[in-house]
Amino acid sequence: MIYAGVNIPVGEYEGPFLINRPAVCNGGGASFYIRDIETAALNVDSNGVRLQNISVFAASADSPALLIRDDTLLEDISVYGTVIGKAAEEGFFNIPYSLSVGAVYPDTPFEFSIKISIPCECELSCDKGVTLSADRLQAGENTLGIRLPGGKAGSIIRRSVYIKTGVTRKMVFTAAVDENAEKKSYAPLLFEPEMQSVLSLMPTVKMPRTQRQTVTAVDNRKKGIGSGITQLLPKPKSTKSGITKLLRGMHYPISADDFLEILFIGESSTDVDAYVFMHDGSMVIGDSRQLVFFGNDLSLDGSVSYLHTNIKRAVYIDMKKISAKTSEIDVVYSAYDNSEISGKVVIKTRTDTLEIDINGSQTVTAFEINIKPPAITLTPLIMPYRKGIAELIRSYGLEVT
After folding, report:
1. How many CB atoms lie within 10 A of CB 107?
2. For residue 50, which of 27, 79, 84, 17 has the smallest C-alpha distance?
3. What CATH superfamily is the domain 235-394?
4. Which one is predicted more confidently, 110 or 204?
């Protein structure tokens, strides 16, 4: 009866889940969730699928929640995380899914603002008693004013604002009503987008669905594989000259016994430095010798060294020497004076030569090396300069304002 429809009993279900034939799936308010940050909670790998009344929760805000086809119909779907496969929904919603406003004075409406970054146009709605400065937002960075209703002393105010595209994303705001709170009816900006994560910077590369993995939830758990981003991105092709041109977000496989030589070449090469972060995936550097740059040119385990001369800025990575505690290495090139960087980065491995072009706009060029044997991959990213520096500071566990 799957063509007629499937009614899912209300409840919470741990995925991943796969739909690989035409179906109408009505969750009636059911919730799907996933613990793996690289795997989508729900993977739709068939045409003619309609999803209704389901909440889907990724492991984190920038992890995949839904992996669907462009013709998948979505009705009353709530999402925490990213949506992949439907062009109008793709991109990272840099929003506060949950934000504490703090203590507010009794019986006094409270106003504040947030800055959010969204990839597409959306509609806004809110719970009763909340006032918004806009009912629609454009793609990009937006400033949104929010007014919460007053409450009695000792109570908790909890209100939601809903971002509606094809799916719905919910921002929950809470405030504690306290008669000892400062008596004011407004607050400054309470949220700004932070550094975007790896997933948010990666474009989705279209490829035939037949090349995508179609495995059941049981197989995913047994084999440790899933419907995550890595399976969606093809290896780039080499040119006739034997040089592989890398594009932002593409994965390039690296052997566990290989080495990498990363060299920046450009007109402003003498004003550009490399910073290498080695961490366990948490973006927190445990030891200063895991941050390799011009003043600290050798990593703790000896796997990364940095050569900085008047004419050369080169990073050397010996994959065989990398400590088992390191699961990610990030290589960032940035200019001293916040100037534009243009030129190219050449990456040599034992067997290949890779290139990525850089063309200004005050950017940092970064490369993420994700170390999860046997699937070690190198991914080029582009990050805004100021956010790149903020991430450097944050890697030491310090708050960036």
Report:
1. 12
2. 27
3. sav2460 like domains (2.60.60.30)
4. 110
